[in-house]
Design goal:
The protein is built from eight helices and four strands, in the order αβαβααααβααβ. By secondary structure, the chain is mostly helical. Keywords: Aminoacyl-tRNA synthetase, ATP-binding, Ligase, Nucleotide-binding, Protein biosynthesis, Signal.
Length: 217
């Protein structure tokens, strides 16, 4: 497990997020539920959560202008994920690049269902707060596109005039979020494999620069 946050997360997400908080109150969850899609250590997970919260503050997040919270403390994330899953074609998830890469590393059939459905949880994280913009690196662009597709699908299936005639509220249920991709640092490559991106879930710390690395590193 990574030491709180990598340089790639800083350049691809946190810099944009900090800037965004100066213009509009923003939300960000510490999304550590994704780590249980792979083997993990409970104590390391707790420490990484605290470290990441501290890094948010150290990097300039003003909690008077932003709401930062632990994802697992808000049950609505998982509840919305389940509702979205009911409208998600499984073929959409099987096409996700990160699922194919990580499931191959896990041995194909040994990959967990949660690894397959993780993008739906990410969509719930986004759509729950009616997000207008989402800061993402290039590696997460496909996941955001899925969130947009799901929002449009649910709006079509359960919104609109046809449901208003049946007693529903009609109209759009979810906002369609737009990506905020940094012009610099949207994709940072691994230090050990120039063909792969710098990844927080890579087993070796040598493949990335962690914000909590010592000066000697």
């Amino acid at each position: 497990m990574e030491k709180g946050m990598s340089l790639f997360c800083f350049s691809g997400f946190l810099c944009l997020y900090v800037c965004r908080t100066h213009t509009k109150h923003s939300f960000s969850s510490l999304t550590f539920m994704r780590y249980i899609t792979l083997p993990y250590d409970v104590q390391e997970l707790r420490k990484a959560t605290r470290d990441t919260a501290a890094l948010y503050l150290a990097c300039g997040v003003d909690i008077s202008k932003a709401s930062v919270f632990v994802q697992s403390h808000v049950r609505a994330h998982v509840e919305l994920m389940w509702l979205l899953s009911s409208s998600t074609p499984i073929g959409w998830l099987q096409k996700m690049t990160q699922f194919k890469e990580k499931s191959r590393k896990e041995g194909g059939e040994n990959a967990s269902v949660s690894l397959l459905t993780y993008p739906v949880l990410m969509a719930a994280d986004i759509l729950l707060y009616k997000s207008d913009f989402v800061p993402v690196g290039e590696d997460q662009k496909q996941h955001l596109e899925l969130a947009r597709d799901l929002a449009q699908r649910v709006n079509y299936l359960y919104g609109g005039r046809k449901w208003k005639k049946l007693g529903g509220r009609g109209g759009s249920i979810f906002k369609i979020p737009e990506p905020l991709i940094p012009q610099v640092g949207a994709r940072v490559m691994s230090l050990t494999d120039g063909l792969s991106k710098m990844s927080k879930s890579a087993p070796s710390d040598q493949s990335r620069i962690n914000l909590l690395d010592s000066k000697d590193v």
